[in-house]
Structures are given as C-alpha cells and as structure tokens.
Amino acid sequence: MAKFSSLFLTAVLAAVVAGSSSWQVADINLSIVAKDGTKKAEHKLVYPKVISSAEAFAADPTDHLKLSFKVQNNERPHQAMVRFLSKDDQADQIMVAASVKKASGKGRFELDFAKSHKKFKYGTRKYDMTLLVGGPQVEESLQYALGEIEVRGPTSNPPVRAARVQYEVQPEIHHQFRPDQKLINVAISGFFSLLVLSPVAVLIGLWSQLGIKFEPLKALAQNPVDLIMAAVFFGSLTGIEYVFYSYWTHVTLFPVLQYLGVLSAVAIASGRSVLSAVQTRRLKRTEKSDDVNKKEN
C-alpha cells in the first residue's frame, strides 16, 4: 500500500511538472472592430486552431484589432506579444500586448491601425499573426500561430524627395536689434565717482598732516643692493597687479597662473630682503639711541 501511494504521488508530481512545462491559453477571441464600434469579423479559437485562409479577415486603416485570451497556468507570463510577419518580404512587426492580470490571468491586446499605419507598409498586404507568451517561471514559451490577416494600408504612397536638390537664393533676413539702454545722468554718475574716490583724498590729507619722511629712501640710496631689491620688490607687486588687470580684460586663467607663480616667487624673495634691511637699520638706530642715553646719564 505504501509503495502504491508513493507511486501515485510521483505520478501526480510528474503531471504537475509536465503541465507547467509549457504555457496554456484558452478563451481566445480575435475580432476586428470598425471605427463606429461595430464588429466586422470575430473568431473564437481553441489552441492550436488557426483562422483558415478561406475565412475573410481583413482590416481597414481605421479599424481596431482586438485579442483577448486567458492564461490557465498558475504562473503569470512576464510578457505577451503579437507578431505580424509580412508574407511579402518577411519583415517583423511586433506589437506588445497589455500585461496579464495576476488575479484572473486574462490578457488583452488592441491595435489601432490608424495610429500605427507607419509600422505597416503602404498598400494592402497580408501578415501572419503569432501570439507569443513567455516568462521565467515556465521554460518553454508559447508561439501560437493565430492565422492570416489582410491589412489595407493607405492608398496614397509616401511623399518622395526630389533626387536633386536645387539651391536658390532665399529672401534677405533683416535683423532687428534692441535699442541701446539709456545711460544715467552724467551729473549723477560723476557724483558717485567722486564719492568712490573720496577715501583717497582723505588718505592724502592725513599723510600731509603726518609729514612725509625721506629718510628710508636716503638709507636705501646709501646701499645699492638694498635699493635694487626694493625696486625689484615694488616692480613685482606692480607686475602682479598688471597680471590681474590682464586676466580681467583678455588673458585666460592658465597663463595668469604661470605669470603669478614667477612674480610671486620674486616678490617673496625680494620682499624678505627689503624687510630684513629695514629691520637691521631699525635695530642700529635703537642701539645708537641707547648708547646716547647711557652717555647722558
């Protein structure tokens, strides 16, 4: 008895596996609906029955092709398509069907020939229709040949370009530019220019009250090396300012970086020498003043 039950379970499992090794479809309904909603042709198929060539199944450019079916497998397909294979030149035209509902397993496909006429060639042609159903759960996909359909495309041929293009003079284009923006009053701009320059005037006035001492210049003149280093230092600062001006007006970034690298190195070296000389003279003056104070005391 136990041996019989095990054989029975094995047979049941084999039947289940065999049943799920391919897709099963039923309730296949194929119809052509006119623009006003009336059905021009309808076929209810049972797999693997096909539409016979004797049955008229033709669609006009304004018709709709509708297909409904039901997947009997417990699994649901990943994709379902209808392939139209032209009998003239064997050119594939694949239309993706709507997704199959998970609950009921029903699938629908609708094709509007008025919107997809570019995918079908001009004139009347016959196509072989094939329903394709597949998914990762079932190893073997379904390729169900539904039958033949005659698609009556537009009677007019597509416009053909001329073989030779003639180049001719076109009418002259007159551009209209915007008028120049109005500038502000000269008196107002002059007032604000003076207002911007006023701190410079204040600075010069304060310098005049403090008095300008030329002693550092005299000390530099006594030592030619210090004088040259001071000239190099101020010259490098002037060069850096000119590089910034050139960058603002016409020079690009990479040349500016090169110039700044050279001038900055010169400014650092010469500036350090000048500041050292100034510090040395300051220390000498401090020592002299200390010696004078000691002698007086």
UniProtKB/TrEMBL annotation:
Ranges annotated as spanning the membrane: 183-207, 227-245, 257-275
Family assignment from sequence similarity: Belongs to the SWP1 family.
UniProt-annotated location(s): Endoplasmic reticulum membrane
Record InterPro entries: Ribophorin_II_3rd, Ribophorin_II_C, Swp1
GO cellular component, one term: proteasome complex
Species: Podila minutissima
Role, per record: Subunit of the oligosaccharyl transferase (OST) complex that catalyzes the initial transfer of a defined glycan (Glc(3)Man(9)GlcNAc(2) in eukaryotes) from the lipid carrier dolichol-pyrophosphate to an asparagine residue within an Asn-X-Ser/Thr consensus motif in nascent polypeptide chains, the first step in protein N-glycosylation. N-glycosylation occurs cotranslationally and the complex associates with the Sec61 complex at the channel-forming translocon complex that mediates protein translocation across the endoplasmic reticulum (ER). All subunits are required for a maximal enzyme activity.
Bilayer topology term: Multi-pass membrane protein
Protein name: Ribophorin II
PANTHER family per record: DOLICHYL-DIPHOSPHOOLIGOSACCHARIDE--PROTEIN GLYCOSYLTRANSFERASE SUBUNIT 2, RIBOPHORIN II
Iron is among the record's keywords: no
Pathway annotation: Protein modification; protein glycosylation
Pfam families named among the record's database cross-references: Ribophorin_II_3rd (PF23860), Ribophorin_II_C (PF25147)
Gene Ontology biological-process entries: protein N-linked glycosylation
Domain Ribophorin II C-terminal: 177-282
Keywords from the UniProt entry: Endoplasmic reticulum, Membrane, Proteasome, Signal, Transmembrane, Transmembrane helix
Ribophorin II third domain segment(s): 27-151
Residues spanning the signal sequence: 1-22
